[in-house]
Structure formats: structure tokens, C-alpha cells
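Two records follow; treat each independently.
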Amino acid sequence: MVEAPQTDEGWFALHDFRTVDWDAWRDAPDHERRRAIEEGVAYLDAHEAVEDAEAGASAVFSVLGHKADFVVVHFRPTLDDVSRAERQFERTALAAFTEQPTSYVSVTEVSGYVSDDYFEGNEEDIDTGLLRYIEGKLKPDIPEDTYMSFYPMSKRRGEEHNWYDLSFDERRELMSTHGDTGRQYAGKIKQVIASSVGFDDYEWGVTLFGDDPTDIKDIVYEMRFDEVSSKYGEFGQFYVGRRFPPSDLGAFLAGDGVPTSEFEDESHHGTHAHGEDGHHGGEGQHHGEDGHHHGEGHHHGEDGHHHGEGGDGHHHGDDGGNESADEDIRGQLEDLNIYAGKPHGEDVYATVLYSEADADELFEEVEGLRGNFDHYPTHVKTAVYEANERGRVAVVSIWETASAAETAAGFLSELPGIVERAGEESGFGTMGMFYTVKSEHRGDFVEKFGTVGGLLEEMDGHFDTDLMVNVEDEDDMFIASQWRSQDDAMEFFRSDAFRDTVRWGRDVLADRPRHVFLA
């Protein structure tokens, strides 16, 4: 008898497609259109904030082509939750101008193809990275990517090719090869696969998210050549959409370009709730361990979450997440020609923890943990750094998303001798500047840091500064400083001594300094 793989289910999904009655919309009085927009925005805002349930995620996308005008995607813990989300839309004045040409109901799942131990109850035998991967599959985030593609699919049950006649081992091998193709798009595409067996017309619903629409085309095209698709795949209609924030609903209905903020060079995504634990799960790009992938800085509010882009570090105080302050720091550094954001840096996030343990002992622990982190394609790098002149050791873990870095911090906090996490200090910390130094100039760089360190000790508002060196690569370093305030730090960055150091560094560094976001 052919063995059916075990499955475990997570959140329920609803893809609520809507068409707009454009004739009715054009003919409606202004006050009716205003009311429809106001109630539509309120509905979308409330559901993106997940005010209707204990956990989940929602987002709205414009849809290209004749099949729909927009789609609202909901992930929720229960089927009743998505049912309520669908019906609550019908209570809005906007609903009167729309029809629902189609929809799709499904539930996220993982199957026995992923891990035998998971379904046998041996979770203690599963590494942490795989468990987090499974959690991300069952409780998916809607990433802040630009484009979305949705399609339903089933496995073929024909006379010549019948997926359900294959043995479990044959199916697992085919799925593994199929997964190898998908992993080539890690960091470019995130997918959510949800089962619709017994819920809708096909057996699965697949949602792809990405910033480049050609990546969506390419991954679907390449996967068609895998045997699991070429022989056994059957597909329904495809839908492609462009994400926009609820506040742009009026612009969308007016035929304007959305998101409107894109044309103002601002972030086009709002705040999203991702469940009670605040974790996103998720997938991304693995960049290796070469130490060259570092992003910018970050500004934190009291809640510890990220609030847009920062400059060279992070500010802690009682002003909360002040996006304008982020922009101010970044702008000031850019004016001083020391900002290393895009295209010279990448938007990544770092967790940094300091330990009193011996560096070699700590490295052994980190090396094992790093192997688990590598199961996450959002993992960029995890390394141990040692202070150049005093017994201070830091563990730096860099990820493509703030949520992944936050999750990693939970595991890293269990390492030996952890005493504090960067960003928890009072005042203003510059988590700074990651440097890749030319090997022949390493001694010169360390000597120059000693000179600059002497100047720092004499500056008002400066507490301490360390040059931290990667224990695996002595040419990979970062500088961490602690200041009384942002103004004190900026005073140093404006100084002639710092400008001279920046100019000098162009000859001894293998690349421009990199800033990171602190998660």
C-alpha cells in the first residue's frame, strides 16, 4: 500500500480577490466615494495590524489583468478567523463597489518529506534551525517584498503519470530535487505553500513574494523542468500583484501609481503583526562568511523593534522609534561622506552580545550554533570578535531580516559568559563601522586606531571604544563606541581628526566601511 506522508497544519489562508465596478465608482457622488475609501482604509489598516485575531498577517496587492483588481491576503490561526476577515470586508462601504470573482482557502502545512523526527515526536533530535524553518512554514509572515504571485496546483493522477501511485521514497526524492531548484532563489523569492485538499478546487495554493517580478517568472519556469512538475504538476490560473499600503487605497482607485510613497523616496510598507512571539520565520539569501556583507545603522525605540533606516548606530532613550531622527543621522553622515548605505552597503541586521568567556571556548560554542543558523537562508554571518587591547569578546550575528536577528539573539544569549547585548546600554552607541583591512596594512590600521582612541578619550561625552577583531580573520574588524548622546558622537564625526582618518582609510581598507542595523 502506498504510504501517505504525515502532515502538520498551521495557519489558515484566504486570498480574497476583488474586482471594482468602475462604472458605479465613476458615477457615485464624491461623498460616497470618500466614505468607501475611509472605510476601506480602516478595514485594511486594522487587518494589517491584526486587530481581529491573536496572531497572523494581512496585506493588500493590486492585481494586473482582467481577473481581478486587487487581492487581500490573510493568514490567521483559525478558519473562523479568515471567515470573519472576509465577512468584515462586506460591512464596508467599499464592498458595495466590488465583486468577488474568485477566492482561495487553504491551510499552511509541513509534511513528512521535511523531517521524520518531527512527526515521530523526537523534536529534541532536530536542530534548532530546522525547527525554526518549520515554524516559519506553519506561521508565515507576509514579507515586505514588492510583488506577489499566486497560483493553485495539484499533483497529477493520470493513467500514465500518477503521483499518488509512487512510493514515499520516490516522492521524497523528487521533492528534494524540486527544493534544490527553489533554494537557488533564496533571498530573492519567499514562498508560502498551503494545502487546500478538501477546502478548494486544487490541492495546494502557492504564493510567491519577491522584489523583482522576473525572479517570480524565472523560478516558476525553471521548476517546470523538474520531474515533479513536468510529469506530475497541474496548475490553475496565475495572478500577479503589486503591494501597496492601505493609505494608498484612494490613489489606487484614482488610477495613480501606488505605492505613492515610492515617488517620495519613502518606505512603502506599514507595520505588521506577526504573531504573539513577534517572530517572522522566513527565508532569504545566504551570503557566506566572507565578512563583506554589512549594512547601515539603526535607531531603536523602547519596544526594541526597528523603525526605518538609521545611520551609523542606534539611539536609545524615551523618544521611541523616531524615523526622522534616523534620517537625520543618515543625512549628516552622508554629508560628511562617511555614510556607507546602498549601493555600497546592504540592508542587513545584527545582533551583538558581549561575553566574559574565553574567546576560544566561546568560538567552539558559536561554531556549533552557526551550523544550525545556516539552515536559515536569511543567515548572512555569525562570528566571534575579540577586543584588540582588553579582554572583551563579542558574538556578532548578521541576518537579512530584523526578526531573524532577534530570534538568533535568543539562542546566542545562552552562550557562556554573556553579560550584555549591544543596544541595551544607555546613551548613544555606534555599532559602527565594520572594516575589511588590506592584510599588508593591518598593523597600520591598528596603530591608527590607537591614535584615534587617544583623541576619543579626551572628548566630552565619550565613554569607551573598542576595536574588535574576528578570531577567524584578523583583517575583519569592527569598532564599537559608547557615547553620552548622539550629538556627542556627531561632534566627533565632524572633527578634522575623523575626516583625516576617513581619507587615510581609503588606502588601507579593502572596501568601504560598512554600517549595520542593530535588530
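The next record belongs to a different protein.
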Amino acid sequence: MRWTLKPKPETSKVETLKNALQVDDVVATLLLQRGIETFEEAKTFFRPSFEDLHNPYLMKDMDKAVTRIEQAIAEGENILVYGDYDVDGTTSVALMSSYLKTRTANVATYIPDRYDEGYGVSYQGIDFADDNGFSLIIALDCGIKAIEKVAYAKEKGIDFIICDHHRPGDEIPDAVAVLDPKRDDCEYPFKELCGCGVGFKLVTALASNQGQTVEDLTEYLDLVATAIGADIVPIVGENRALAYFGLEVINSNPRPGMKAIIAEVKKDKLTITDVVFIIAPRINAAGRMKHGNHAVTLLTEIDFNLAASYAVDIDQFNTDRRETDQQITEEALVQIEKNNEQERFTTVVYDKNWHKGVIGIVASRLTETYYRPTLVFTKSGDKLAASARSVKGFDVYNALEACGEFIEQFGGHKYAAGLTLLPENYEAFKAKFEAVVKETVDPKLLTPELKIDLEINLNQIDDKLMRIIRQFAPFGPGNMTPVFMTQGIQDTGWGKCVGEGDKHLRFTGMQANSNSIVCIGFGLGDKLELIKDKKPFDAAYTIDENHWNGNVSLQLKLKDIKA
């Protein structure tokens, strides 16, 4: 792992902010690294407010979307709320359908089948709408590339409103309205909303017609915060405010479906990290193992007892998912070794029997072992489907675009994408993808990077610093938990390996002139030799709290140590 120390802000800026906020150098530096330079910016950061949210009508086509939906409500048209089967899609559908049902009874939901229909808007979904008398489809977290499908719907007299956040292609679908802040011609000030965030902006615009404000819509923010966490969008700007208030809802008054999931996992106060690792995988598991409809049913249920029974099912899907992805990951690692592909610039693996619902997770797991752009393929009908994952700093979307001659269709982001291709093109694609990455990747990106905010001494760590760092939350891309580095730490003599298979490292560390502090390094058991015999070493860590028997003490959560 390579350690990279973030650049230090100018001393004059640190002094100015320090004096304005009455904080120490450490806090002022952390804020400046996050682009916060003034008292006002700090106030916005530490005290998120609904006033930080932009007017939804700044988004291109918002007026058209609202006009068409109001017309549908007024005329009693049937509205189909359509969304993808992942967390962002299912939370978007739950949000939009829940809101619309407060205005009209003529609302139904549709989640495509991951296996029969694949990602995004499908012809089957449009046929379903046609067969059942729906004249308006609101597509969420998908649709920005559905040129032919939207045209097909139009032929059948069905209008489309698209709420997406993925990168558009060269052409925008011919829908009534296309809401996507990433459109080149959209001047919406914040470009990093998730699909559920775009859906929430549409709900905000619709509600404003009824004299409601954002404060009247907080009940939907548990869904928005979950989507923000799961979709790994930057938790800055509008997303920070939405995640902040969404977490408040999750922890104080979540919808019955969320409450039921939280009851299953028996956790008290949830952070955005808990949302990512506890709530999101369960919602996702429905679409991976069974059908995304199960997630929407859970998230829209208003009876807690019913929601609780659905949550038990969802929990089981998640257990099945975990077992399946572990098994496939092991098989993929064997395949890489068997083909002598350990030293390549990419990982591309395929097995026709692998479960399509977990190949994205497997791709993520493989990047933990071989840190490089990764694709996991399986059979999907008469084609091969893959999930792509990248490494920090490398745009896998662009790399796939360069292999376009072999791909049937693809979509996604810089770090994650999905694609399909014909079986006969697999080997040629695999060779081309390897060549493209080899040619374009900076080799240092293939070694995991640990970004360190600041070097400090152990005696600078105290309860006051911890209290302020807690207020930096919610953490996520664009505002990660601060990582510190300290040189010349020594173990007081009690260092040992703990946990199953001695995987983890635990010791009490101190520096000259500092108090001792407990340090825990998960997965760092193999570094025990570095700390033995009171040899000095450097540590990179986050500051954490240890709750034990009613006592709370500070501890360091180690990221890495070096001699």
C-alpha cells in the first residue's frame, strides 16, 4: 500500500480559519482540505440546512415533468413508476410511488426482472404498461440511454418522464421530460445527485404546487439517504444535507420497512457506513437473489407487522447472497491462477453458471485481491453479461468505450459499469480490454493508495478533537473520515494478534511525551513483527471510540503500519 500525504493548505489560510472558528491547526487544516475556507462555509458544513437545497426548477425539463404529472393526476390517468432493481432504483420507486399515492390512486410500480429483462427500461415493461392501460411511465435511475424504448412507447401512446443521473450518450431520448443533472444542457448547480435524489427533486417540485416545502417531505429522506450511501455518490453539497437529514429520519422515525430491517440487525444509532453495509445489501439482495419487487413492497409497506415479515425474507435473501458470492469469488480466484493471469493489468473472468445477481459484488471482491480493473462475466440468455469495477483514479467507463466494437450495450460510471456482449466476442474483448488498460493506466494506480489527511502526534488526540471529528459526519466520497499518520510510535509491550486465525493486531501505542492509546488493526495480524521489541514504527489510522461495559475510551483504528 502506498501512503500519500495530502498537500498542506497555506499557513495564512490555516491561521485565518483557525481564528475565525476558534479551533486548532488540526481542525482548520482538515476543513481547508475539504474546500471550506470561511466561517460561512464552515457553518453550512457543520450545520446542514434545508436552505442548502437548490430550487428543483433549476433542473432542465422540471417544468415539463411537473405539468405532465399534474395533467395525469387531474385526468385520472394510470401512472407506472418504473425503476431499476438495485438500491438506488428500488428506493426511487418506493419514494415516487409513495408520494404519488397521496395524490391519486392510479399508481403502480414496475421493477424489471434482472434475468429476463436486464438493466434499465425494457420492451417487456413497456408492453406491460400498454396491456394494463398506463399512459405515463416515470422511469427512475434509468432511461437516459433508452432511445429506442422511449420511441417504442411513444408509438403505443405512452409518455415517458425520465429521472436519471447516469451519463447521457450523444442523443437524449424523445421523452416528455428528461431530468438528469449530467445533461450538457442542464444548468442545475449540483451534478452529483443519485437517481433517488433526482426523484426527490421531482417530488419537491410537485409538492411545491400544493404549497408544501422540503420540510413537509422529510419522511422520504430515509430512502434518499440510503440511496446516497449505496450508490457511492459524493457526500458533499446537496447530498450532504440530504444524507444528514435522511440519517436523522432513519434514527428517529424511519418508515416501517426500514424500521423492520433495523430491528432484524439490532443496531442502535446508524451512521452512513451502517446504511452502506447493513441496510443497502439487504435491499439489494432482493433484486440479486429473487426480485426487486420484494424491496419495493418492504419499503412502501405501512403496517409494521407485515413489514417485519417481509424483512425476515429479505434477510434470508441476503444470507443466500453472501454464501453465493463467497463461493463464486473462490472459483474466480482459482480461474485466475489456472490461467496464469496473476500479473495482468486487468481481471476478466467468466463462467456460464455464475449467479448474475452477485457478479458485481464478486468483481469488487476480486479487486481487493488483485488491485486492477475487473470484469466478471456470466451467461445471460444468449449473451454474456458482466459487471465492471475499477480502481481509484482509473475510468473504466472510458476503457469500455474504447472496446465498443465488441460490446452489445453498456452503461455506468467511472468506477462501476455493466455490459453485455455476444459469446463469440468474449476472447477478443478480453484481449482488447487488457490492451486498452495496459496502454492507458498509470501503473501506480494498480497499487492501493492510502490518502492521509495530516501528520499529528499522539498527544494532539483528545476528546475535544474526537467531538469535532464526529461533526464532520456523514462521511463518504468527497468527505471521507479523516486519516492521520504518526511517526515513531512504540508498543508498550503488550502487542498481540487477536481474532480468528490471529488476523487482527492489537497493542497499546505511545510516543515520547505522550499518553498511551489502544490501537486495533483489523486484518493487520501479519504486521506483528514490525512492532515487537519496542521497535519504533509509523502508523496510519482513524480516531475511533471504544464502547465497553458502559465506558467510552478513544482508540486508533489502524489502516496500515510501516517500519
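Discussion point: The chain has 19 helices and 19 strands. How would you locate this feature using only the C-alpha cell line?
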